[in-house]
Design brief:
single chain; mainly beta; Porin; twelve-stranded antiparallel barrel
C-alpha cells in the first residue's frame, strides 16, 4: 500500500509537471552537471542545507558535488525495560559520537559512511539481582544515495538509497554478518511551511538464531513544521519495523524533535524516540549537530 501511494504521487507530479527543480528548473537554477567530487560546486551555488538527521526519515536530497556534511549525535541514550522476552531486565545504553559522513559525488549522487561509534551497555537483572556491563564498538554502514528528482527544490523529491552494513562491531554489539537493503524516501513540500516525508525500506537481515537471512520491512511517516523565519523546525514521526520471521514483533516508535539552524551550513537538534510496542526501546533521548563543509 505504501509503495502504491508513493508511485501514485510520483505519477501525478510527472503528469502535471510539478517536479520543480530537476524536471522544470527555474531560469536562475545553475547547471551543476559538470561538477564532481574533485571539481566542487561553488559555495554560492550550493542548494539549501538539508541534513538527514535527527529524524529516522532519510531525506532524498543529496549533498552538492565536492562537499561533505558531518551529522552526529553529541549524546545518545537508550533505555529499555519492557523487552520482547518479558524478562525483568533493565537496559541502559550510551553511544559516543555515532556519525554519518555524507560525501557529494555528482549532481545527483552521494556516498554516506555511517558509524555507530563507541557503545557502553549496562544490564540489570531484577530477578537475579545482578548487574553487568559491556563496552565496544558498533558496525559500519556504506550507503549510496541517488536522487531521481527534486534535488534543486520544488514540491516533490524522491531518491533510491541502497546500503550495505559491514560487521565491524566488537563485544557482540551486533552479529558478524553482512546485511543490506534499500531505502525509498519521498519528500513533499506542503503549504504553510509544513513538510511531509514518507519512506519505505526493504532489508535482508540475519534472524536472531543466526541460521538464515530474513526480509525486514520499515515504514516511516514524517511531518515537520518550520517557524520563526525558518530558524526552527519541529517534527513528529511514526516509525515501524518488522522482520518476516514468524516469531518477530513490530518495533513501533513515535518520535519528536526540535531543530535550530545556526546558519547556512550548521544546525543543532534535540529530541526523543518513544517506543510504543514491546519490541522497541522505551525511550531514546538525543542531542546532535550537523555541519556542511
Amino acid at each position: 500500500m505504501f509503495l502504491r501511494t508513493v508511485a501514485a504521487v510520483g505519477w501525478l507530479a510527472a503528469a502535471t509537471g510539478v517536479f520543480a527543480g530537476d524536471t522544470l528548473p527555474p531560469a536562475s537554477t545553475p547547471d551543476k552537471d559538470r561538477y564532481t567530487l574533485f571539481d566542487p560546486v561553488p559555495n554560492d551555488q550550493q542548494r539549501e542545507f538539508s541534513p538527514d538527521r535527527p529524524s529516522q526519515f532519510t531525506g532524498p536530497v543529496t549533498v552538492d558535488a565536492g562537499h561533505v556534511q558531518l551529522e552526529m549525535d553529541l549524546a545518545n541514550y537508550v533505555y529499555d525495560r519492557h523487552n520482547p522476552e518479558r524478562a525483568r531486565v533493565d537496559i541502559d545504553q550510551w553511544n559516543a559520537a555515532p556519525f554519518d559522513l555524507r560525501i557529494g559525488l555528482t549532481k545527483r549522487t552521494e556516498l554516506d559512511v555511517l558509524y555507530e561509534g563507541y557503545i557502553n551497555l549496562r544490564t540489570r537483572d531484577r530477578d537475579a539481582r545482578t548487574v553487568s556491563t559491556q563496552s565496544g564498538f558498533g558496525d559500519l554502514t556504506l550507503l549510496f544515495k541517488y536522487n531521481l528528482f527534486g534535488n534543486e527544490g520544488g514540491t516533490f523529491a524522491f531518491g533510491i538509497l541502497p546500503y550495505l552494513k559491514l560487521p565491524t562491531n566488537t563485544a557482540h554489539f551486533g552479529n558478524k554478518r553482512v546485511e543490506g537493503g534499500v531505502e525509498l524516501p519521498l519528500s513533499i513540500t506542503l503549504p504553510a511551511n509544513f513538510q511531509l516525508g514518507l519512506q519505505t525500506e526493504f532489508d535482508a537481515v540475519r534472524n536472531d538464531a543466526d541460521t538464515r537471512y530474513e526480509a525486514a520491512f520499515t515504514n516511516i511517516a514524517y511531518l515537520g513544521y518550520n517557524f520563526l523565519d525558518k530558524k526552527f523546525t519541529v517534527y513528529a514521526e511514526w516509525y515501524s519495523r518488522v522482520n518476516r520471521g514468524s516469531d518477530s514483533e513490530v518495533d513501533g516508535e513515535v518520535d519528536a524533535g526540535l531543530i535550530y539552524y545556526i546558519g547556512k551550513n550548521a544546525e543543532v537538534d534535540c529530541g526523543c524516540n518513544f517506543g510504543v510496542t514491546r519490541a522497541a526501546p522505551d525511550y531514546q533521548p538525543f542531542v546532535g549537530l550537523s555541519v556542511r563543509y
